[in-house]
Amino acid sequence: MKKWSRLVLAGVVSLALIHVPAASEAATKAKAFKNCTEMQQTYKGGVAKKAGLKNRTGYDKNGKPTYKATKYKAYVSLATYNVNTKSDRDKDGIACER
């Protein structure tokens, strides 16, 4: 019984020591770009904050958003998008789409 409890305790302690990268560490690996030209050399379709977003091109006469397909597919990375939010001028969740 003592061996069993020591084994369980050792397992709990070893799990506590496993390093899980924090969100701040993941954000530091994201690359900041000066402008869209520089970003599009790496990511032709820009960077989206989540999958499934559409490229909003404007609004119709009734105020509903209009969408248009892009030539290139956007790379999905929340960390990279968050570092480059200044490049998302139309605020549709895709920075530097084309």
Automatic annotation (TrEMBL):
In this protein, which residues make up the domain named Excalibur calcium-binding?
32-97
InterPro entries, per the entry: Excalibur_Ca-bd_domain
Annotated signal sequence is 1-26
- Keywords assigned by UniProt, alphabetized: Signal
Which domain of life does the UniProt lineage start with? Bacteria
List where the protein spans the membrane.
none
* Annotated protein name in UniProt: Excalibur calcium-binding domain-containing protein
